[in-house]
Amino acid sequence: MPRLRAALETFPPYIPGKPPREVPGLESFKLSSNENHLPPLPSVLETMAEHVGNPAHYPDDAATALRTELAARLGVGIENLVVTTGASELLVALTQITSDGTTEAVYPWPSFEMYPQTTGLAGATRIEVPLRADGTHDLAAMAAAVTEATSLIILCSPNNPTGPALRDAEVRDFLAAVPERVLVALDEAYWEFATAGGTVDGLGLLADHPNLVLLRTFSKAHGLAGLRVGYGVGHPRVIAGLLKAVIPFGVTDLSQAAALTSLRHWDEVMARAAVISGVRDDFAQALRSQGWDVPEAQGNFVWLPLGELSDAFEDACVEQAIAVRNFGDGVRISIGPRAALDRVLEIAADFRAAHFG
Ligand SMILES: *Cc1c(COP(=O)(O)O)cnc(C)c1O
């Protein structure tokens, strides 16, 4: 057997959300991967149908058209942008350019499962700072966890899987407390769904903080998870570093074209995100009225802190042809069609009657 790196033993593999079980007589729903349950915009599907391109050729490695449009849209320079195969590749690249066996990475926990994976793979010491009881980042504890060896901090707003969004003022204070030599990655994969007042908008912080990088994606609000397009926004020196770490020609021509069309229909994307956010608020409120302790939900998902009852709740959903994401200490439910969420509400009510009587 070949000898593999010892670092591989220090973190678990990424576990994708499961598909739902087929149950006769019931429509099945996948609420386990935070996908957009609405199809991409018609204009995006048209672009994809028309945009044959020439697959014998490599795509534009610099994603010039997409970056130009993003720059105009976000009010940054094209040199502040890197396009990657989903925000996932950006996370890997960010870790690559900051971390190795001598460094420490600080991130909240529970949070996105790729954080242990990318930082662990780089060989960094992982400092997982527990969330507060209400599912929010403990920024004071995170700042206190920074040492001479810290090279990377990851923040996630809204936090996957618990839901709360960071506030602008607290992130400003946090950045002021963290040494500028530490790269701070603000993962905004779900920013389009955040509606709470004062939610952090990373773009407004970039000018004052050259050590800040934003992670964004077309996978969630744009509904293009299958095309694998994400982007990073940051200081040109950091972007130049990232460009050395990303895979050349990773984002296909078709994916770049689809993302570009989706961007050009920004208002429609944001309007659909607002619809999903509205359904999310109703769903979270309905769960709270049943007695559930649901944290602030600002993404396209809701967290149920079920503790050791997580398996039992997941099983109850599986029996009703619904796939949810079980994290062991709680269950995350992605916002899907009303019919799916109504069924989850029934399951949740029965579950409370059975377990909390
Ligand atoms: C989904 C997600 C991403 C990135 O997904 P990609 O499909 O790779 O763009 C990044 N961060 C968080 C927190 C996510 O939930």
Q: What does this molecule look like?
A:
This protein is 37% helix and 15% strand. It has 357 residues and is of the alpha/beta class. It has 2 domains: 120 residues, Alpha-Beta Complex (Aspartate Aminotransferase, domain 1); 215 residues, Type I PLP-dependent aspartate aminotransferase-like (Major domain) (Aspartate Aminotransferase, domain 2, 3-Layer(aba) Sandwich), CATH 3.40.640.10. A 7-stranded mixed β-sheet has the order 2-8-7-6-5-3-4, with helices on both faces. The chain has a 3-stranded antiparallel β-sheet with strand order 9-12-11, with helices on one face. The longest helix is centred in the C-terminal third of the chain and has 25 residues. The model has no long low-confidence stretch (mean pLDDT 97). Pyridoxal-5'-phosphate binds next to helix 3.
List the helices and strands and how they pair.
Blueprint: E1 29-30, H1 42-50, H2 64-74, E2 81-84, H3 86-98, E3 104-109, H4 114-121, E4 125-130, H5 139-144, E5 150-156, H6 168-177, E6 183-187, E7 212-217, E8 230-234, H7 236-245, H8 253-264, H9 266-290, E9 301-304, H10 310-319, E10 322-323, E11 325-326, E12 331-334, H11 338-355
Parallel strand pairs: 1-10, 3-4, 3-5, 5-6, 6-7
Antiparallel strand pairs: 2-8, 7-8, 9-12, 11-12
Helix pairs in contact: 1-8, 2-8, 3-4, 3-7, 9-11
Bound molecules: pyridoxal-5'-phosphate (PLP).
Task: Please give a quick description of this structure.
The chain is an alpha/beta fold and 357 residues long. The protein has two domains: 6-40 and 267-351, Aspartate Aminotransferase, domain 1 (Alpha-Beta Complex); 51-265, Type I PLP-dependent aspartate aminotransferase-like (Major domain) (Aspartate Aminotransferase, domain 2), CATH 3.40.640.
